[in-house]
Amino acid sequence: MTKQHETAPADSMRVDKWLWVARFFKTRSLAKAAIEGGKVHHQGERVKVSKEIRAGMELTIQQGFDKKTVVVVALSGTRGSAPIAQQLYEETVVSVARRELIATQRKMNNLARPDHRPNKKDRRQIGKFKQENDQHYDEYWSYQDGV
């Protein structure tokens, strides 16, 4: 006889398992590492791996550049597809707006990059520009000449 997993929703479950079921992390060990690394908070405090969470709790989860604040809507004993996993939580409106703002700022910072590395002529122009606009440039070179 095969062992059947219980799929009935529980009233509480471990935070590492919920993060895995809600598809924030690919494995439970990655969820555990994130929790131990201080990437998951509840009410501004770091959580432990064995913390029991319930529906209605608010978690702050940091993944790379993204920091999401989500409210636990439901608990599930099994990991399902992505659309099912997205029904387990709701991201707060403030969190969505903050993430979009930070993403646009990152994109704008990337636009400020030059298209290519400076060649010899460009480097000379940069040096000339720095020399003309640096107030301490003359003091530095006069100090170096005196030594």
UniProtKB/TrEMBL annotation:
Protein name: Heat shock protein 15
Keyword Zinc attributed: no
Database matches in SUPFAM superfamilies: Alpha-L RNA-binding motif (SSF55174)
GO molecular function annotations of the record: DNA binding; ribosomal large subunit binding; single-stranded RNA binding
Family affiliation: Belongs to the HSP15 family.
Domain of life of the source: Bacteria
Basic residues compositional bias, start-end: 118-127
